[in-house]
Amino acid sequence: MNDKLTLNKLEKLIELETQLRGEYQQQLDSKDVSIAQLTVDKTALEAQISEREKTIATQLATITEFSSKSKDIQALEQRNRELHNRSDKMKDEVATVKSRVKELQKDLAAERAELAELKKYDPQRLRKNLDTSKKKLADKTAAADKLQKSLNQTRAENTQLEQKVKDLEAEVAASADAEQSDSSEDDKQAAA
Predict the structure, then answer these.
(1) What is the sign, positive or negative, of the torsion defined by CA atoms of 148, 149, 150, 152?
(2) Predicted pLDDT of residue 16
(3) pLDDT of residue 24
(4) How big, in percent rounded to 5, are the helix, strand and coil portions of the chain?
(5) Where are the beta strands (DSSP E) in 40-123?
(6) How far apart are the first and last CA of the chain?
(7) How far apart are CA 175 and CA 181, in angstroms?
């Protein structure tokens, strides 16, 4: 019975290992590839370092030799030519690096400009500006409505006043006619 439990546990462990291996095998493989690449890179860098150390040791030996043989002008001239060639190469490399730095600075400026442009369209700020604009529009609409009501009221009052003026002019004309007819009747009665 105990062996069955152990066997069942062992089978479950194997299944779990198989399942985990299935889930993480691709990640493990990619990590192994990364490690292998980094190992190759490390080896290459170590080779470069050892090569440069050899070069430095060679150069140091050459310098020591030249300093001990300072009377040998040809050797110094040769060394001078080599150094001159190296400095020309380094100048070219420096010029290349400077041009690359300038390109990167231009790219950085372009990215900063793009970032500034994107910041212009910040949704929160645009939403705030929209809300502010809506409030201003509502205020202006309310003011325009008040002005329109006031204008309509003034026009109505003006129409009423014009009507009153016409009525008063008609009354004045009627009373003037009445006075004339009264004076005509008085004249007729006086003549009679």
Answers:
(1) positive
(2) 82
(3) 78
(4) 95, 0, 5
(5) none
(6) 160
(7) 10
pLDDT exceeds 90 at position 141: yes
Residue 66 has pLDDT above 70, yes or no: no
Span 102-118, pLDDT tens digits: 999 999 999 998 888 87
Tokens of 177: 């006619």
From CA 179, how far away is CA 192, in angstroms rounded? 20
Q: Which amino acid is at 118?
A: L
- Using DSSP's 3-state secondary structure scheme, residue 1 falls into coil
Which amino acid is it at 16? L
Non-local CB neighbours of 62 within 8 Å, separated by 6+ positions: 79
Note the pLDDT tens digit of each residue in 47-62: 999 998 999 899 888 8
What distance separates the 2 farthest-apart alpha carbons in the chain? 168
Distance between CA 50 and CA 53 in Å, rounded?
A: 5
Q: Give me the amino acid identity at 18.
A: T
Encode burial over 109-141: b for 16+ CB neighbours within 10 A, e otherwise.
Answer: eeeeeeeeeeeeeeeeeeeeeeeeeeeeeeeee
Residue with tokens 């609409």: 141
Q: Tokens 């309310």 map to which residue?
A: 142
Domain boundaries, the chain: 1-68
**Distance (Å, rounded) from C-alpha 76 to C-alpha 19?**
71
- Compute how many other C-beta atoms are within 10 angstroms of the C-beta atom of residue 79: 15
Residue 145's Cβ-side half-sphere holds a number of Cα atoms within 13 Å equal to: 6
